[in-house]
Amino acid sequence: MAAVVAAAAALVIILTGVASLLGLRESLLHQVDIRLERATSAPAFDGPGGGPPGGGEDLNPLNLPGQEVGTVLLRDQSGSGIVTDQFAVGELSEAQADTLRSIPADSRPRTVRLPDLGSYRVVAWNDASGTSVTGIPLSSVNATLRAAAARQALIGLAGLAVISTLCAWLIRRELRPLNEVAEVARSVSATPLDRGEVQLTPRSRIDDTATEVGQVGHALNTLISHVEGSLRARHASEQQVRNFVADASHELRTPLASVAGYTELLRTHDLSPEDSAAALGRISAESRRMADLVEDLLLLARIDASRAEQSTLVDLGQVAADAVMDAHAAGPDHRFELDIPLDEAGQAPDFLVSGNEARLRQVMGNLLTNARIHTPVGTVTTVSVRAKDTEIVLTVSDNGPGIPADLLPRVFDRFSRGDASRQRTSGTSGLGLSIVAAIVRAHGGTITASSDHGACFTLRFPRAHRPASTGH
């Protein structure tokens, strides 16, 4: 960057210097032309026919006072000569005279090079006495131009050095924050990202998007945050898998041990038909339990994998009403109530969501089964459905003992159980609420649990609408 700026500055300095030297040369040549005109207007040329006044044929204008040293003259009438100093006139060589004779007599000043004399500014003209040529040396002009060029070069080099130094300093100052950005990048690259929980704490303080360097720092911070979020999600997923495998192994250990024990009992003991039937019954029950557990695990795996399922418009009000009726039949010793507002005509409005009806019915069934199993006889469970502007809110609440405080934060975790009423003897796998939460999330909804006066589950789904009908 500094080299580019220095090159541009050098080009500007060179062009400026050349332009100024050309202007100076033109000015100096103009002054020489004025002196040349004075030289040709000397009194020696003022006589009749351009000759000397008073008829002196041998009067040489070079002998007149005021002629510059180095002035040359060539006349058909007077011959040729050169002023060698203030009091002497010398003869021109034949080569010098021939050069002067070759100049067109058009009264126009021009620059020529005389042998052994150098550059001259000369003018030739015709008069009654013949052709005359007068010239003035350009040695002083050339010396002035050389001195000016030397000064321009020195000034240009000094200016270029100053500009280069200033540009380099400014560029280093502006790019200095990049060192911090690079240090942050090096720190992140040195962090092991292939295992465990990763914390990418380094961030660039240079994130002002109004500057180019700040944009780089901001982009780096965004990249680090994205990578950190992805790594955190990976770690959480790995931890969830580890916990899930451990819990599943623990859950399967008991039924497997029971099956193995009863099988060994049947193999090694001569049991009565009644005892054999009881052992086979236990083996069958534990096998069904393991099958149900595996089915629940497969269901959770499918939901977690976000496998696309058939989606239709589902009326949550109708789903809730059917679930309450099923719960009445399954648990007549509990009370189940439905709270749905009716319109002026006494009809229930639509509570439409977009989703899989079978899965949504499974959500309601699991919640009401959970309430029936984990609450005492006579508990009242209320299902209410309300429509908001953009969502459908479904609430399942009961007046039972509620959810233990230590279980509430992890009530939707897999294999979560609380007190004795929630142990394996209750016939549940510990995956019911996990399945409910997974299905709700798969439908773009949320579910929360509270336990102020009994258990309360609040589900929120994005509201859907029937497509507008078009008439013809």
UniProtKB/TrEMBL annotation:
**InterPro entries according to UniProt:** HAMP_dom, HATPase_C_sf, HATPase_dom, His_kinase_dom, HisK_dim/P_dom, HisK_dim/P_sf, Sig_transdc_His_kin-like_C, TCS_sensor_his_kinase
One GO cellular component this record assigns the protein to is: plasma membrane
Q: EC number(s) of the enzyme?
A: 2.7.13.3
Residues covered by region (Disordered): 41-62
Q: What is its main location?
A: membrane
The HAMP domain sits at 172-232
Q: Where is the composition biased (Gly residues)?
A: 47-57
* Name listed for the protein in its UniProt record: histidine kinase
Cofactors, names only: a divalent metal cation
